[in-house]
Amino acid sequence: MSLVIKIKNADFSGSGLPLLEQTVQGFPADGLKGLYFFEEGENNTLHTGLFVDSSGNSNHGNLYLDFAPPINKNYGLEITDTNGLVIDTGIKLTPELTVIGCFENTMTKGVEPVYETHISDTLNIGIDHASGNPINTPRIAVNTRVNTNDFGDVGIYANNSSILDRTRSAEAGNSRMPSIYAVGVSGISGDLKARSLDGVNYNRSNADIVQAYKTDLPESNIAVGMWGQGSRKELSGKLYAFAIYDKLLTDEQFTKAITAMNQKMIERGITVYS
């Protein structure tokens, strides 16, 4: 009689002791600060209360300023207010950052704002309140957008419009299907990385990022959602999930996190663009 012990996520390929990696619902646990699946509300009801963090860190999010609450759906959140949605996670901006998000643009083609933003920090939201005009402050953070040409942009933006560095790829996803997008930035090395389920693998390094990124540290929080910057037009969309790290993920960790995000969507019956 023999006993077989199986250890999940153990790597026995080496000659030494097996390697173990702690995960949270499939996401690498190292550096994970927030994990938002938007499952806390009853379907077709107005969202109330906190946006629950499932990472175990209790970094539950709050509605930012006077933005209108979204609608709870079985898949996540539906944004029906034309000003969009901003969620303040309360997670402090750190010298390094990675965010993996799954979202969908449901706006009519051609009416998107110049900047449809999903990831930023609370000092670089770009507007002082939901219906307010864009503000210009010497801040810098990571923003993502899906523009009118269906390109996916990930950039380091200063003063709401000055782009220090940016990725752009026609293969970055279809804005009218659920898309998984990951962006990582280091204010230490100046590295900028973008990944997606459909194969985007972008690496860039810019020394200007190192100095400019420090502007928002440490008083700013990470914000996620969907809101407009620059030319403001009517917004609508769906949010499925976000994962936030306080480090720049390795290539292997990027792959594992994106795979875990896609698996979560599969479990909900959601087909992600790939």
Gross morphology is globular
Radius of gyration: 18 Å
State the secondary-structure class: mainly beta
Total helical elements: 2
Write down how many β-strands occur, each being a DSSP E stretch of 2 or more residues.
19
Q: Strand share of the residues? A: 35-45%
Main β sheet profile? 8 strands, antiparallel
Class in CATH? Mainly Beta
H/E topology pattern: EEEEEEEEEEEEEEEEEHEEH
Distance between the termini: 46 Å
Helical fraction equals under 10%
How many distinct domains?
1
The averaged pLDDT comes out at 76
Low-confidence stretches: 134-141, 143-154, 157-174
Predict the CATH topology.
Jelly Rolls
Per CATH, the architecture is Sandwich
Tell me about this structure.
- With 274 residues, this protein is mainly beta.
- It has a single domain, classed as Jelly Rolls (Sandwich).
- It is built from 2 helices and 19 strands.
- It has helices spanning 207-213, 251-267; strands spanning 10-11, 19-20, 23-24, 27-28, 32-36, 62-63, 71-73, 76-79, 85-92, 96-105, 115-121, 140-146, 152-158, 162-169, 179-186, 191-196, 201-205, 221-229, 237-245.
- Strands 5, 7, 8, 10, 15, 16, 17 and 19 form an 8-stranded antiparallel β-sheet that branches. Strands 6-9-18-11 form a 4-stranded antiparallel β-sheet, with no helix packed on it.
- It is globular, with a radius of gyration of 18 Å.
- The termini are far apart.
